[in-house]
Design a protein that fits this description.
About 40% of the residues lie in helices and about 20% in strands. It is built from nine helices and nine strands. It has helices at about 10-15, 20-25, 65-75, 100-105, 125-130, 145-155, 165-170, 205-220, 225-234; strands at about 1-5, 30-35, 50, 60, 85-95, 110-115, 130-135, 190, 195. The strands form three sheets. Strands 2-1-6-5-7 form a five-stranded parallel sheet, with helices on both faces. Strands 3-4 form a two-stranded antiparallel sheet. Strands 8-9 form a two-stranded antiparallel sheet. α4 (about 100-105) links the parallel β5 (about 85-95) and β6. It is elongated and about 70 Å long.
Length: about 230
């Protein structure tokens, strides 16, 4: 899968996504992540990409032409024109990002992410190139770079080969419909608390039953909203 990010701060994105699992996934060729500095596509001698909004108001607005030229450059680099592309704009007014949306995006071959900044971007560029607007939560950040990293991290984990086994994400919190069960490792006893006996019993049937019970109990206690959501979807 290929991700192309249109941003004013490419180094921020590269730093976050260049480490750990996603960094290794790039080195091993399971995902490709490219960052494009929108300023490089400005025709202004000062590489200006923003201007005051029509109608007045505080702050600056990102202009449409540099973003469009950046997008055109990205699409021109696309080797296989038949591959499916989805263009996403990270925006606080977009639909809320969740695991289901990540699974939908993981079906595409190519995702282009536009990161806004300042007071946002000219509406015309959104209407022209963007397929959907996505928000990571009901709050406002200084830019779309961190939300873009979250989206790419989440979607990349669903790409074949990025994780060692599909079970790594299929039975996780949220993905399975429940919060993940408690997990333990050595030492057997820590600060007077021992590992539950069932986990060292060697009886896999009982272990699976205990884990499911714990997941359901924790979900009811901490995230009843998840249970309600899945009931509505069924």
């Amino acid at each position: 899968m290929r991700f192309d990010i249109m941003t004013l701060f490419p180094e921020l994105v590269k730093t976050v996504l260049g480490e750990s699992i996603i960094g290794r996934a790039q080195k091993n060729g399971f995902v490709e992540i490219n960052c494009y500095n929108i300023r490089d596509f400005s025709k202004d001698k000062h590489r200006r990409v923003d201007d005051t909004p029509y109608g007045g108001g505080k702050g600056m607005l990102m202009m449409a032409p540099p973003i469009y030229d950046c997008f055109e450059h990205i699409m021109a680099q696309k080797a296989d024109k038949e591959k499916s592309t989805r263009v996403v704009f990270m925006s606080p007014s977009g639909s809320l990002f969740n695991q289901k949306k990540a699974e939908e995006l993981a079906k595409y071959d190519h995702i282009v992410v536009l990161c806004g900044h300042y007071e946002g971007v000219d509406r015309r560029i959104i209407d022209e190139i963007v397929d959907e607007e996505i928000s990571i939560g009901d709050y406002v950040l200084t830019g779309g770079e961190i939300p873009a990293c979250i989206l790419i991290d989440c979607v990349s984990r669903l790409v074949d080969g990025v994780l060692s086994d599909p079970e790594c994400y299929e039975n996780e919190s949220i993905s399975s419909g429940y919060i993940e069960y408690p997990q333990y490792t050595r030492p057997y006893e820590f600060h007077g608390v021992k590992v539950p006996d069932v986990l060292i019993s060697g009886h896999h049937g009982n272990i699976d039953k205990w884990r499911k019970e714990q997941s359901k109990m924790l979900t009811e206690e901490k995230r009843p909203d998840i249970l309600e959501k899945y009931k509505k979807e069924e």
